[in-house]
Structures are given as structure tokens and as C-alpha cells.
Design goal:
Shape: elongated
Largest sheet: 4 strands, antiparallel
Structural class: mainly beta
Helix content: under 10%
Number of domains: 1
Number of strands: 8
Number of helices: 0
Strand content: over 45%
Order of helices and strands: EEEEEEEE
Distance between the termini: 16 Å
Radius of gyration: 19 Å
Strand order of the largest sheet: 2-1-5-6
Length: 108
């Protein structure tokens, strides 16, 4: 099975065909839209043939489709408590993601 390592906005992901990937929110993404990742760092065909880029593999691309444009992750609560000071602050954060299904890997 074809696998690849891609870089998307500073993060690296190991992907295979048919895999659903959870990446940081893409602002302009719509459900069913096609996405192409051009920064392919490594490709493998599953039979031992590996292409390693310096830093990218020439002509290699990974294509996918957006399955869920906006998905909210788990809520994280951050609490700063200072003992004996009568002071506490609490804030929360909920990261938003985009789900992309990998449809094809072109080794270049």
C-alpha cells in the first residue's frame, strides 16, 4: 500500500490511501472539496521502494477530499490557582479541525 509523509502548515503527517486525516482548520474548505498537498517529504510503494526528498520529492502530490469541513475537538480547561492568595483564573479552549480523506498518492 502506498504511503507518504506530507507537511501541511508546519506539521508532518504519515498518510495512506483511504485514511481519514484530522488536520488543523482550513478556513476556506467546504464539504466534498478537493485538496492537494504539494509538500511531500517521503513516498513508499509498500514493496521496499522509498523516495526521500531533499527536502521535497520532485513531482509528488497527495490528493484528498474534505469529508468534514469543521470539527470541534475535545474541550480543554486551563486553571491557574494561587494558594493563599484568593486568586484563581479559569479559561477554556476547543480546537477546530478539518477531516480529509486521502484519495490518491502520486509518487512523482
Amino acid at each position: 500500500m502506498n504511503t507518504a509523509v506530507i507537511r501541511d502548515r508546519g506539521k508532518q503527517y504519515r498518510v495512506q490511501e483511504g485514511q481519514v486525516l484530522e488536520i488543523d482548520l482550513m478556513q476556506d474548505a467546504k464539504d466534498g472539496a478537493a485538496v492537494t498537498f504539494d509538500e511531500v517529504l517521503l513516498t513508499s510503494n509498500g514493496e521496499g521502494e522509498v523516495k526521500v526528498g531533499t527536502p521535497k520529492v520532485d513531482g509528488a502530490t497527495v490528493s484528498g477530499t474534505v469529508t468534514k469541513a469543521v470539527h470541534k475537538g475535545k474541550k480543554i480547561d486551563v486553571v491557574h490557582f494561587r494558594r493563599r492568595k484568593d486568586s484563581m483564573s479559569k479559561i477554556g479552549h476547543r480546537q477546530r479541525y478539518t477531516h480529509v480523506k486521502i484519495t490518491g498518492i502520486n509518487a512523482g
